[in-house]
Amino acid sequence: xxxxxxxxxxxxxxxxxxxxxxxxxxxxxxxxxxxxxxxxxxxxxxxxxxxxxxxxxxxxxxxxxxxxxxxxxxxxxxxxxxxxxxxxxxxxxxxxxxxxxxxxxxxxxxxxxxxxxxxxxxxxxxxxxxxxxxxxxxxxxxxxxxxxxxxxxxxxxxxxxxxxxxxxxxxxxxxxxxxxxxxxxxxxxxxxxxxxxxxxxxxxxxxxxxxxxxxxxxxxxxxxxxxxxxxxxxxxxxxxxxxxxxxxxxxxxxxxxxxxxxxxxxxxxxxxxxxxxxxxxxxxxxxxxxxxxxxxxxxxxxxxxxxxxxxxxxxxxxxxxxxxxxxxxxxxxxxxxxxxxxxxxxxxxxxxxxxxxxxxxxxxxxxxxxxxxxxxxxxxxxxxxxxxxxxxxx
Length: 394
Ligand code: CTP
Hints:
Elements: E1 8-13, H1 21-31, E2 35-40, H2 44-47, H3 50-57, H4 75-82, E3 85-91, H5 93-101, H6 107-114, E4 119-123, H7 127-131, H8 133-144, E5 148-149, E6 153-156, E7 162-166, H9 170-180, E8 191-196, E9 201-202, E10 208-209, H10 216-227, E11 231-236, E12 248-251, H11 255-263, E13 270-273, E14 280-282, E15 301-303, H12 307-311, E16 318-325, H13 329-339, E17 344-349, E18 361-362, E19 365-368, E20 373-375, E21 379-380, H14 381-393
Parallel strand pairs: 1-2, 1-3, 3-4, 4-5, 8-11, 8-13, 11-12, 13-16, 16-17
Antiparallel strand pairs: 6-7, 9-10, 14-15, 17-19, 18-21, 19-20
Helix pairs in contact: 1-3, 4-6, 5-8, 10-14
């Protein structure tokens, strides 16, 4: 965030419940040395106090075209010359429509009609408003004119409805601000494929063999890589997690589906095999439901292809494997790293309730083929993912 030092950023706050989230962004920009001038629309002030924004920006808030104490020359015109970037956060359907159509009937739309600086819109609204054709047309118009739109995310909205309309997460917004000032992201332009979750190997028409992997660690690794600027493909086994916006999602079921999907991506820069891939699958799949006629049922299993083993000599990518161990932890992990010719292996265990499968926290030890070893604290999977990327990029 160094390059934000002394940058002048105009933030336009409009009337959405997400207006309070502008406070956090203003604080982060100011902490990085940037200056912030805010314009609030009339509706924005229904959601958040003008004094809060004035205090956080350390500047008087502009909220009217005609100030009580008019200064020589329009303040809005001066803005057009002084600022380095405009950020509309949150952006309602109303301001998007006005900006797309050149309407300038309040202080913010007037400023937008003048400012030619890079402009980022961060929409936040009800999902029905977002997908309204008029809104999507307006968004498209703005994009065609070179404005940056940070798409809203799927999730629970203030109305408790679920859909696309939530303000993008803070990191995505900051990444967009950084890219305006060409602040380098360490994984920019890197192609990264990540596998996550379990695989399901069918026994018959309704049953399968699988494991307890939730996919949370792999999703956190994917989202962190995306936030660090990478083009990410996430190949995910069955899970209950939400697709991550901005990431190419490939949903698969079996180990052989996963092998096929990974094989398509061998020209990537990094391949992270976090998935808990089944080692065996039923040899014969009964197409309908097996009936319980017999006193004993034997299911013959055959090994699946080891994906890492299969790809190790077919790619130039940096390969990161995971080892989930319950005994002889380090010895088993190092053995896997050497056998599978990995650049890194991330060891985790399922021996404690706050580590490994199906929980939100983890603890890992990372070994590199060059002999390095580093252990993390027990932490959220998001922070563990960041820890992992820091080590690998290093
Ligand atoms: N893996 C793989 N293909 C498989 C099985 C595992 O690519 N068919 C990968 C996993 O994604 C992980 C690494 O190999 O990155 C180690 O997986 P793990 O299950 O810990 O070890 P295995 O090699 O399967 O050995 P074991 O089950 O005996 O511990």
